[in-house]
Design brief:
The protein is α+β, with helices and mostly antiparallel strands and 441 residues long. It is 33% helix and 19% strand. It contains 13 helices and twelve strands. Strands 1, 2, 3, 4, 5, 6, 7, 8, 9 and 10 form a ten-stranded mixed β-sheet that branches. A hairpin with a 4-residue loop joins strand 3 and strand 4.
Length: 441
């Protein structure tokens, strides 16, 4: 009797989840009652599975990789027709459904750590698209097109939980963050802590998390910290203080509901989004906690949070914010190891499909890779860890198999290791990276 290994069981879970989507195609078809109703050479399940395993080859080569290099492989036209039928929410729902079936790791037994960040993604050049095209500049002599990927990432689980893809010219990280927070599933027994960088610091972001009964930890600049406190922080080295601020769109002191708390008022311009001030509720009281501490290099960090004082201390915040950098690494694997830089389409809607597909593949690969540890060898000079790039490629090859064959995934992953060099640093390079064009694949 064959006992399924972890990676075999996980693949079975993912394929079962795809089957669940395919069982009612009317929910995931652009034209319900018409699309995905007939038997095709490229079935719904095969199409989704292939979408998840796309890499950097041309589409015909991708079809050969999936079906084998033979004359019976489906044509490119068959693939295009299937992707035209797919509803824009189908792959998003697949990611949500797959995540629900996986175990969660919690901080202090009751908190889910969710990092939020965004990353630009270069797409096929199209000067006629005003929403994504950037004109000639110092980085590109011909101009380029970009979309912006906003993502929620579960730090301890090492997987993506939600995504919003925006045209580069219409990128709004504040709006994307609020939308993802509002859409996040609620669990009375588990609270989320949203950990974000400076780009997400706004009263509206804080309020959306609070109104959803969750927690946040967001890095802020010295200027914003001084605006919150109402004083200079140039002489302050450590700070942990709780306060309330009363937000209003009116600057008239006569209209204030709490005139005795004049120093706590902060004006919100009508040009700035804030969703909880209305004609019926012209003021909004927001409780905040301001943290400031010194880093090892003599610089200072400022954080805004609503985490309880009795449970979270300064050292906790240092640890939590440092953990946010795991999402930076996850974006690197998503874009390069999983070939998100090599898209197979020019259309924005189909770009979104591929972003969601790569995120599902990332979650699948990450879940397997977490189970594998390098074998101990006392003769080694360095400590070794799994080579995640090779591990993700191995998981993609394993998921691509659909004829019942298999191989020892964990053994292959364990054989690809690299030394850990924690003190190695590289200067961050800011340069334009061209997407992989169709002509050279």
């Amino acid at each position: 009797m064959h006992i399924m290994k972890f990676y075999e069981n996980l693949k079975s879970i993912l394929l079962t989840t795809i089957d669940e989507l395919a069982s009612d195609p009317t929910l995931y078809a652009r034209n319900p009652g018409k699309d995905f109703t007939r038997n095709r050479k490229l079935s719904f399940k095969q199409f989704i599975q292939m979408m998840l395993t796309l890499e950097g080859e041309c589409l015909k080569e991708e079809l050969y990789l999936f079906f084998g290099r033979n004359e019976d492989a489906p044509s490119k036209a068959a693939f295009y027709k299937q992707r035209q039928k797919l509803h824009k929410d189908a792959l998003a729902n697949l990611l949500f459904a797959f995540n629900k079936k996986l175990k969660r790791r919690l901080y202090k037994g009751k908190y889910q750590l969710i990092a939020c960040d965004g990353s630009a993604l270069d797409i096929y050049r199209n000067p006629d698209d005003p929403d994504t095209f950037y004109e000639t500049n110092g980085k590109s002599t011909k101009g380029f097109n970009q979309v912006h990927v906003n993502a929620l990432y579960s730090i301890l689980d090492e997987r993506y939980t939600d995504l919003i893809v925006q045209p580069g010219r219409k990128n709004n990280e504040y709006s994307a963050f609020c939308q993802m927070v509002d859409n996040a599933p609620k669990d009375n027994n588990i609270k989320s802590i949203y950990i974000c960088d400076r780009g997400y610091a706004s009263y509206n972001s804080y309020a959306h998390v609070i109104e959803n009964g969750q927690y946040f930890l967001i890095r802020v600049t010295d200027k914003k910290t001084e605006q919150l406190l109402g004083k200079s922080i140039s002489d302050i080295t450590t700070l942990d203080t709780s306060l309330e601020r009363i937000l209003s769109r009116s600057q008239s002191k006569k209209r204030r509901l709490y005139p005795e708390r004049e120093n706590e008022y902060r004006h919100i311009s009508k040009k700035v989004a804030f969703d909880y001030i209305t004609d019926e509720n012209p003021e909004y009281i927001i409780p905040l906690r301001i943290i400031r501490f010194e880093l090892s290099d003599g610089k200072y960090e400022n954080l805004v949070t609503n985490l309880p004082v009795h449970e979270f201390h300064t050292e906790d915040f240092k640890e939590l914010y440092f953990m946010r950098w795991n999402e930076e690494t996850a974006f690197r694997y998503l874009k390069y190891s999983l070939c998100l830089k090599a898209l197979h389409t020019k259309k924005f809607d189909y770009v979104i499909q591929e972003v969601w597909a790569r995120a599902i593949l990332f979650n699948f690969s990450s879940e397997i890779t977490k189970q594998v540890k390098p074998k101990e060898n006392p003769k080694r000079k360095h400590k070794y860890e799994i080579n995640h790039t090779e591990a993700f490629k191995t998981c993609r090859a394993f998921l691509r198999i659909h004829d019942g064959t298999t191989f020892d995934v964990e053994a292959v992953i364990a054989s690809n290791i690299e030394p850990v060099r924690p003190d190695r640093k590289y200067k961050r390079e800011h340069r334009y990276m061209k997407p992989m064009t169709f002509a050279y694949r």
